[in-house]
Amino acid sequence: MTKKQFRIQGMHCVGCAMVIDVALEDLFGVQSANTNYAKQTTDVIYDEKRLNEENLVEAVSKAGYKAAPVVSAVR
Q: For the sheet containing 30-36, what is the strand order?
């Protein structure tokens, strides 16, 4: 399992966050999705053998929002 964080654009309320969670959790291979409206992010735990980042971004897009992976800085 892999955990990735995505920046979300287009959310206007907590209900939007719930819509994103459902859209992601409906994908076969997603263990959990936790979208935070205040931070405008979502954390997704998924099976990287079944899904990739593009699949997750596409699911968010189909729900009406825009997602982009958060790249962590390496020091």
A: 30-36, 41-46, 2-9, 66-69
Q: What is the pLDDT of residues 2-25, one digit of tens each?
A: 999 999 999 999 999 999 999 999
State mean pLDDT over 54-59.
97
CA dihedral (57, 38, 20, 46) in degrees, to 10, reads 60
In whole angstroms, what is the distance from residue 75 CA to residue 61 CA?
Answer: 32
What are the CA-CA distances from residue 8 to residues 5, 11, 49, 74, 75 (Å)? 10, 7, 24, 22, 25
User: In the 8-state DSSP scheme, what is residue 45?
Assistant: E
pLDDT attached to residue 73 = 52
The DSSP code sequence of 52-66 is -HHHHHHHHHHTT-E
Rounded to whole angstroms, how far apart are CA atoms 10 and 48?
26
For the full predicted model, state whether its pTM sits above 0.85.
Answer: yes
